[in-house]
Specification:
The protein has 4 helices and 7 strands; from the N terminus they run E-E-E-H-E-H-E-E-H-E-H. It has about 150 residues and is an alpha+beta fold. It folds into 2 domains: about 55 residues, no CATH class; about 80 residues, Alpha-Beta Plaits. A hairpin with a 5-residue loop joins strand 5 and strand 6. This is Transcription regulator. It comes from Salinispora pacifica.
Length: about 150
């Protein structure tokens, strides 16, 4: 499957005795050894969801929960990263998301162009504050602090 510009392969890893997801661009071609594979039952009904969960959500270093002041369908249509969206009511939803850096989370959320509140995720709240300060300096033409 592909996600963004990357391609992934779901395969059984004989060494780990488990299903693994491999990035195709990191694979090295090897000559066939003559050993045949044994068919195995696929580990989930929705393979795309399974792979996305393994390559994104499972790898998140930072996680946050935000309340978005918009319907869940509107948020789902706008956000381009794997997230969990829970309907609160017809006008709001909660979004659980993560990344390898809290600033990246903040930037992704600003791209929604929707009002939101950080419910859980102190690192995200600090990132919003840090980025707001940086953006304000840029808007008024103030140079960054020395150091």
């Amino acid at each position: 499957m592909s996600w963004g510009t990357l391609w992934y392969l779901l395969a059984w890893d004989l060494d780990r005795d488990d299903w693994r997801v491999f990035r195709v661009d990191r694979m090295v071609v090897h000559a066939p050894t003559g050993v045949r594979f044994q068919p195995r039952a696929i580990p989930a009904d929705d393979i795309v969801e399974y792979v996305v969960g393994r390559v994104s959500k499972a790898a998140w270093t930072y996680r946050a929960r935000v309340l978005v002041h918009a319907p869940a369908a509107k948020v789902a249509a706008k956000i381009r990263i794997p997230v969990d969206i829970e309907v609160v009511d017809e006008f709001t939803c909660q979004v659980v998301l993560g990344s390898d850096h809290p600033d990246r989370l903040a930037l992704w959320l600003t791209q929604l162009d929707l009002d939101l509140e950080v419910i859980d995720g102190d690192e995200l709240a600090v990132a919003f504050d840090r980025l707001a300060t940086r953006f304000h300096r840029a808007a008024v033409g103030q140079p960054p602090p020395e150091g």
